[in-house]
Amino acid sequence: MNEKTLNTMLEKLKQEFDISDIVEHKPRLTTFTVSKQHAETLIRELRDREAYTHLNFMTCIDYIEDGIFSLVYMLHNYGKKHSLGVHVNISRNGEEVFSIHTLWAQAWTYQRELREMYGIRFTDSPRLDEDFCLEGWDQIPPMRREFDTKKFSHERFGHREGRSSEVPREHMKVQLYPNRGGDEE
Amino acid sequence: MFKKSLNTEDTLENAGLTVEEQQLFSNARPQAYEPYPIKAVEDFANWARANSLWILAFGTGCGAIEMRPLMTARFDANRFGVAGRPTPRQSSVFVIGGYASVKTLKRIVRSYEQMQGPKFVIALGICPVNGGMYFDSYNTVNRFDQYLPVDLYITGCMPRPEVLVAGIMELQKMIKAGKCNGANRYVDNFDWYKANQKKVIKNWDMPDYNW
Predict the structure, then answer these.
(1) What letter does residue B55 receive in the DSSP assignment?
(2) What is this model's ipTM?
(3) Highest CATH level, class, for B19-200
(4) Mean pLDDT of residues grouped by 10 in chain A (185 residues)?
(5) pTM across the whole model
(6) Of B101, B129, B199, the CB nearest to A160
(7) Do B201 and A135 make contact, defined as CB atoms within 8 angstroms?
(8) Element holding A10 (H helix, E strand)
(9) How many folded domains does chain A comprise?
């Protein structure tokens, strides 16, 4: 996709929707952030009018410092060989989000996983509360960053004594230069 | 009712099942394997077992990828009487291929208990030993020997098929010497194993022992 077409499209979207933080990562990938109330319409527009017909994936980033989850919808345009990442920031405190399973039928699987791993609820998404990877999970969702996975693992699964960890760089220095006490020079 | 054990004092609770399901599943405890009274007969049986190791075709983790070259032309495990079997009822060796997540562990326990004795467990890779690279994972068990008895460990990440072949030959030696008694350890310490399994598998909706 050439730069001119992309800019024209982004200008057009800017007039209609509340989008910000446009970043061109590489010629075939651009991302931007859109407010939550405009997001569903925008994604529908991209699919129906701008030919971003393929949902590559849908995921979530936990920005615990800012108190937000950033949902990422990665869309792809086969004709122009261009991907567009749509970020939607939502609150971390159990805010309900629109579901896109009506746009892409496979999205309900992603949404089911996001419900399990982050505790995000998607309105009317089918089979949302079924177990996905974790069966009988009784803790807070494990991909939330306040979940201490190492502590949980040691308490629930135990650990074998005698396990040790090395910093690879320091360890290899000692292995490679034993006569110099690990000194590279 | 017809499948219930006659000895009502020493039976399993099957608390994870509904009342209707409890009628369908046995509640008897597992029984230990008793060797033949004549040593020569037992030795002959062990020789036969060691040379017909049938592996359950259940790839429990990433290590299952090593089973393909093991069975095909280059390493050809059929030389050792090793064959893959599609069902636990026909297999005698369970290869734990790498990490075991909690969801898989439930299926592993169920498959292992359905295997007919004498049965042997090979733990492949470092993950069943101490968790390996998944030592701090929320979903992967760290010490596999707490949940099922392991006869032989093959460590590494990933072990090459050569090591697996060496492990199989070692297992054959152990079986011929009559040293592989993992299944009997499971029976003897059944309550301990079962308590450990139930500590991590929270949605226990199967019989306590899967005959």
Answers:
(1) E
(2) 0.85
(3) alpha beta
(4) 85 91 93 94 94 95 95 95 95 92 94 94 93 89 94 90 82 83 67
(5) 0.87
(6) B129
(7) yes
(8) helix A3-16
(9) 1
